[in-house]
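Please discuss these two lines.
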Amino acid sequence: MNPLDWSFPIAVTWLIMFGIIICRAGGTFLLGRLARKGIRRFDRIEKIMSGSKYRRAEDTIDRFGAPVVALSFLTVGLQTVVNLAAGTTGMRYRRYVPALAVGGSLWALIYSTVGFLGFKAVAKAYQAEPGLTVGLALVFVVAIIGLVIGLRKDRTPAEEEASASAN
């Protein structure tokens, strides 16, 4: 079922695709939130989730997770895991919903305009030049990691202390 084969105008196709992704990804996030509530009923798990290291990890995901959520919509097979993780770690709605809207909009745009052709192009590029395709993918991953590290280093020592003392 390729959206390029639909007879709807592009705007209608985009709205349909956007609705699909909001329901799917948002539902996955909500399932994660429900799982978080249910699993905390076990004393052993509650003890782990109340620990300082776990809370620090949750705070990091809450603080820097929104771009990851938005970018996950540009990948294949990672969206569900990222949305579920955002829910189970308790990412705040005020950070999750805008990331879902941005990422979902991009996803809907891609699938309502080029559909699966983009993925076929990457597959064809890999067949023609696997080393170059993998190399470009690695450059992209390293750039994202560098961005995250750079954002982390921009924090002042006072912010670091406040974050550490809160846990």
Q: What stands out?
A: The chain is about 80% helix and 0% strand. The CA atoms of residues 15 and 108 lie 8 Å apart.
